[in-house]
Amino acid sequence: MTPLKKLAGQTAIYGLPSIVGRLLNYLLVPLHTGVFLPERFGVITEMYAYVAFLVVILTYGMETAYFRFQSKEGANHQRVFSTALVSLILSTCVFWVVTTVFSQNIAEGINYPDNSEFVVWFAFIVGMDAISSIPMARLRVEGKAVRFALINFANILVNIGLNLFWLSYCLPHFEAGNSNWLINMLYTPEIGVGYVFIANLLASGVKFLLLSPVVFKIRFAVDRSLLKEMLIYGSPLLISSIAIIVNESADKILLKWLLLDELGTDAATKEVGIYGACYKLSIIISLFIQAFRYAAEPFFFSQEKEKNSKEVYATIMNYFVLVCATIFLGVMLYLDVLKHFLGNEAYWEGLHIVPILLFANIFLGIFYNLSVWYKLSGKTQYGAIIASLGALITLVLNLILIPQIGYTGSAWATLVCYASMVIISYHLGQKHFPISYSLKKVIGYLSLALIAYSIANQIKVENEILKYVIHTFILISFIGVAFVLEKPKKAIIS
């Protein structure tokens, strides 16, 4: 089996369950936006922005360090696994104690003084997910794709099921005056958006329990010298990951705080809600990127010693960008259909930021592809530097643009940030770990997608059916052109 076919297979094995699972989870978007007005959905968006930061901090690069050290020749796999896992368990327990003790202070600090329970719930969500990251990584290393997928599915189905129970069953029956013993026992309307968080907490608990056999079948021990090496390797990745999360999530936090004085709490949170909901429409590209990352990280390390590894990496980039460009075009050509996933028309005013966010996510995916150079060369400090520069761009642009144009400024800041990171990473990579990427194809596919989208926008057709026939023809034509351009590469993947 050729390397590219192997990667495609691994992406399918690990990615398809993730994609299906996340698509199922994506069905919660119309539920949440239908039940909650933007100002309440903004609470959900903001809280999960904080979660993104905490997950990165609590894992502190240990997952990638685990991949790196278990792949070394002569590595004691059990020792590497145990060292990584015990380290995360101990740090998470400290985190749980601190957040529980100071939950009220933290709640007041984030402007939710009446909801200190949110802090406790999310502390346990984040903690369990952090500990679970190493056992899940081990399943990927051992090729236990079915088990990996089933655990993820269980987590997602529990989350969806509880959301549907509380928000689709209990809430409408309660509001209609049709309460029964089950609703009276398990539903309290005052909790509101809190049920979204409780569902997540219980789902994370189920995932944690399902992984317990993987955790407890090993002897708990820490190799201090190995732990030191893993922390040294992972610390730049932690900085890099924090910076990336700043790029991904800081806008959702800054939106509220920068608009708070001008608009008031509810109106500012509404802006966050609209932005967060429209961000969800870029989820399809995010799903593909996530699926790709599940397979690519161990794959890149496994291909390191192959003679044609750099050629493989370059070819992967071509196909990755091609798929992303196709997804971008598909979403934008059918945006009038996809917008109905946002359950309330109150969110539609933010649809103009969707193409900006889609392109931003494409650049983020390209950056993940480019990151192979500093991970394989051991120069992880460069990843931290690049991501930190991106974070600085994000913060500066958000501070400048949000007061001027609100969440539209956040979207543009995200795009400029990721594009800048790609440019910086590419130039540094060519100096330290040169890979002959085909810039003409990368730029060409993205440009062609933009041109196709522009053409579709210029064609004004009243008849909806005819409109989508034309859009479908444009999409197929784009795929056909790409197929012709990539035909010479057939020998590499066959």
Blueprint (SSEs and pairs):
Layout: H1 3-26, H2 28-35, H3 38-59, H4 62-70, H5 77-101, H6 103-109, H7 116-141, H8 145-175, H9 181-186, H10 194-216, H11 224-263, H12 265-279, H13 283-302, H14 309-333, H15 335-338, H16 354-370, H17 372-376, H18 380-405, H19 407-432, H20 439-458, H21 464-486, H22 490-493
Task: Describe the model.
By secondary structure, the protein is mainly alpha-helical. It has one domain (3-493). 82% of the residues lie in helices and 0% in strands. It contains 22 helices and no strands. The chain has helices at 3-26, 28-35, 38-59, 62-70, 77-101, 103-109, 116-141, 145-175, 181-186, 194-216, 224-263, 265-279, 283-302, 309-333, 335-338, 354-370, 372-376, 380-405, 407-432, 439-458, 464-486, 490-493. The longest helix has 40 residues, at 224-263.
List keywords for this structure.
single chain; 494 residues; mainly alpha; 22 helices; 82% helix; 0% strand; globular; disordered C terminus
Overall form: globular
Strand content: under 5%
- The amount of helix comes to over 70%
If helices are DSSP runs of H or I spanning 4 or more residues, what is the number of helices?
22
> Main sheet?
none
List SSEs in N-to-C order: HHHHHHHHHHHHHHHHHHHHHH
Distance between the termini: 9 Å
Mean pLDDT: 83
The SS-based structural class is: mainly alpha
Question: What is the gyration radius calculated from CA atoms?
Answer: 23 Å
